Structures are given as C-alpha cells and as structure tokens.
From TrEMBL:
PROSITE patterns: TAT
Pfam families given in the database record: HXXSHH
InterPro entries according to UniProt: DUF1552, TAT_signal
Protein name: Secreted protein containing DUF1552
Record's signal peptide: 1-33
Entry keyword set: Signal
Length: 468
C-alpha cells in the first residue's frame, strides 16, 4: 500500500469516502442499535429544548411599565402573579415553573448576541478569538436514549443549518463541540419522519459501510505518519467517522421497519417564516408528531438567531411589527416596553399552545398525559438589553419524572438588573450586581430525572432540588 499523506491522492479518497458516508440522508434518520421490543416502553421520557433570542422586557421597578410588561412574574414561590407578557401561560400555571437568577458563569460578561451557542453547552465560547464548544444537553440525553427510537434526536431552527461561530442557527452540538445542522423546512421534516425513502436505501447503505471501512483503514495507516498535533486533529475527525459508523449500523435495523402513519391534512408543510404564526405552530407540530409516534424522544428548536440576522427576525410580523430584534432596541421609546412584551407574549402563547397539546393528549405508551412524560425547557441566554445574566427560563412537564411545578423560582431578587438602554454603557458591560446560580445545576437535575447517570454538567456545583 502506498504511503499516505495529507497532500496526496489518498487524502482525497479519505475525504471523498467520508463525504459519501456522511451525506446520505438515511444516516441522519436512523437510530436503533438492536431489535425493538414488541411491547411499548412504559413512561417514555422525552426532552425538548427551545431558544428565543434578544432577551426579554425588563423595565426597572420604578418604571410604570414594570407592572404589566416585565417578563418575569411578580412575587416568588407559589405566591406569584404573571404579567401580561406571560399571561398566555396562566391556564398552565400548575404545569410550569418560571426561573430567574440562573446563567452560565463563563459567559456572564459576554455580549448577549454571542450567547446562543452556549445555551445548552455552558462552554466558554466567548465573544472573539479562538472558538471551541462542547456537547449540548440534548445530545447527552440522545446518547443515552437515542438507540431506542428511529431518530436519535430532532434538531430544528427557523433559520436552518449551523450558522456561524457565536451566531449559531442550532442549539445542538456533538461530543466534540461541532454544530449539528438544524432543519427549518416543515416539509423536509415531515418527509424525513413519515414518508418512505426510496427503495435504493439498502444499496446506498452498503456503499456507505464500504466507504467507512476504507476510511478507517486509511486512517490507521495515515496516523503513523503524523505529528502528535496532527494525530490529535485526526483523532477528533475520526470521532465523527465513528459517529457515522454507529448510524450506519443502526440503519440496518430500521430499513424494513414501517414508518408511522400520520395525517397531514391539517398542515401546510410549505410554510415559511413570512407566515410567522402558522410557521411556528407547524414547527411545534412536527415535534408533537415525532414524540407521539415515538420517532424520537429528543428535540431542539432554535426559534431565532441573535442579532437580528436571518429570516427568524421576521417572526415579529405575527403581531404587527417589522423586525423582532429591533423591538429590543426601542424600549426607551414611548410604548417600547409594551411592544417588546407583545412580541414575547406571542412566543409564550405558541409555546403554551404546544404545552397544552401535550397535556391534553393521553400518553400512547405509558401513564398520564404526554406532558407528564415530556420535559420542556424554554428560554434565552439574554435577559435585559444584551445582558448575559439572569436568563429568562421556563421548565414545563415531566411530572412522571418527579418534577413539581406551579412556582416562580426567583433567584434574582426583587430588583434585578435591567432598564432601557440609553446609549451609554450597556447592561452587559456593567458590574455584576447579583451572583446567579449555574444553569448547569438545572441541567444536572434534568438529566438525573431523565435517568441519565450524570453527577455533573460543565461547571455545575449542585442540583436544583426545589423542582423535585
């Protein structure tokens, strides 16, 4: 065999083989390491995480807008009152917990536009310089449970793809911190979940297996010729190859398994964010259908990208505004807090609609409702204007996992940092006025209640025992 090097023909074959293996659509839609039991599992545990950008309205206590248009409730514990911003969630009060005073320690002094990347990872992705991320919460659970369903996880966003470092279009990152592309087209998602793939899938799967075999054989020879730094880079790359190999192996068990049958009569699958309310409802419906048919038990949906970049900024048209990000900059104007809160109210309404649908649907494979067996995290990595602290968070569902709701877990105090930006120093540039709890403590709590044997996550230093 000829000597392998990174500049020769064999490197091109190496990369071409990977392209074949990783580009097959089938490999993104299979996840079964062994034959499925004929009996449905009892109380399947599901996880879905949602992200909205640009923070939330946080007028100061002395501002007349504080009473009605502040995002966070007034009060604490089970003695709290929703403002108008969260009022759509009032009927679901006993199914949700609102949290304040949580954030990721490594990002508290970072501009809010850079923060979506680390929302589910807690990594120190920073605002400039070298970029490195880590595995996201959802993918840890996907590694634990993904072999029991056709799809290890469902990764969605309004803008689609991966975006850019510190400008992510996806919440999901694999074990090496690489962004997992998100799908934003409802029809593509529906077809992936429920429309039979072509009859040539078995042949293509065999080709991909052969390509992977060649890749690994080449890699073993190539590694001997590399420096230690290059070996580390190659090892990281091979982790991706092994991930593909696992997917190929899982695919073999699903090729002849019939896809679930669902009706799409009530869906317009060709919607775009230019029809924002219907689009958002359809994206939530994709997750509902995937969960109901047990096609996956893990989902993420990034509702919008930070910094007003991308088609997701058009979602504000649902409530009569032009661009969503602009609303966060105009809170100093008359009626600015109200306008921003009306947009947040729209997002809360659609999230609440999804929560309500899970609550009203009997669990197909266990006890109670689907909501009782589904844990939902809804939030942002910004609160006040560009402020990367005191994340606005809602945790819903999971009662059969031990979660107890109907409370406002207020760790931010009675007068958290906020107010409109007047053109001076932005809130994120100001001194930290309150020490948040690590959001990773919540992640550890969630993972443990999901039966993942996790003692820690990133920089966690405990659990959020108030919720269980």
């Amino acid at each position: 065999m000829m000597t392998l090097n990174l500049n020769g023909l064999d490197r091109r074959r190496f990369l071409r083989g990977t392209g074949v293996a990783l580009a097959l659509p089938l490999l993104e839609s299979v996840a079964m390491a062994g034959p499925r039991s004929s009996e449905p599992p009892q109380d399947p545990k599901r996880l879905a995480c949602f992200y909205f950008p640009d923070g939330v309205p946080m007028p100061l206590v002395e501002d007349p807008a504080y009473k009605d248009w502040s995002w966070f409730p007034h009060g604490t514990g089970d003695d709290f009152k929703f403002t108008k911003a969260l009022s759509p969630l009032e009927p679901l009060r006993d199914e949700i917990s609102v949290l304040s005073g949580f954030s990721h320690p490594k990002s508290r002094s970072v501009h809010g536009h850079s923060n979506a990347d680390q929302f589910l990872t807690a990594a120190d992705t920073g605002s400039n310089g070298p970029y490195k991320n880590s595995i996201s919460l959802d993918q840890i659970y996907a590694e634990h449970i993904g072999n029991q369903t056709r799809y290890s996880s469902l990764v969605m966003s309004t803008d689609g793809g991966t975006g850019t470092p510190r400008g992510t279009h996806t919440l999901s990152f694999n074990r090496n911190g690489r962004a997992i592309p998100a799908e934003n087209r409802p029809k593509r998602i529906f077809d992936m979940l429920f429309v039979k793939s072509d009859e040539d899938a078995a042949r293509r799967l065999a080709i991909s297996q052969s390509a992977l075999d060649d890749l690994l054989a080449d890699a073993r020879s190539l590694r001997k010729t590399l420096s230690s730094n290059d070996q580390s880079s190659l090892d990281e790359y091979l982790d991706s190859v092994r991930e593909a190999e696992i997917k190929v192996e899982k695919a073999k068990h699903w090729l002849k398994t019939p896809l679930p049958t669902v009706s799409a009569d009530h869906l317009n699958l060709n919607l775009t964010p230019d029809e924002p309310r219907q689009y958002l409802q359809t994206m939530f419906e994709m997750i509902f259908l995937a969960f109901k048919t047990d096609s996956t038990r893990v989902a993420t949906y990034q509702i919008g990208r930070e910094n007003g970049v991308g088609i997701s900024d058009h979602l504000a048209r649902a409530v009569g505004f032009s661009l969503a990000h602009q609303l966060s900059h105009e809170t100093k104007n008359p009626g600015g807090w109200k306008n921003f809160a009306i947009y947040c109210q729209f997002l809360n309404e659609e999230f609440g609609r999804f929560v309500g649908k899970l609550k009203s649907t009997e669990e197909p494979a266990g006890r109670g409702s689907m909501l009782d067996n589904t844990l939902l995290l809804f939030g942002s990595a910004s609160s006040a204007f560009h402020l990367s602290r005191n994340y606005p968070l809602i945790l819903a569902g999971g009662k059969n996992m031990g979660f107890k709701h109907g409370k406002y877990l207020n760790n931010a105090g009675s007068n958290p940092q906020g107010g409109a930006w007047d053109g001076g120093r932005e809130p994120w540039q100001q001194e930290i006025s309150h020490e948040d709890r690590p959001l990773s403590n919540l992640f550890v709590t969630m993972l443990q209640q999901l039966d993942v044997p996790a003692e820690s996550f990133a920089d966690s230093d405990g659990k959020v025992t108030e919720l269980i």
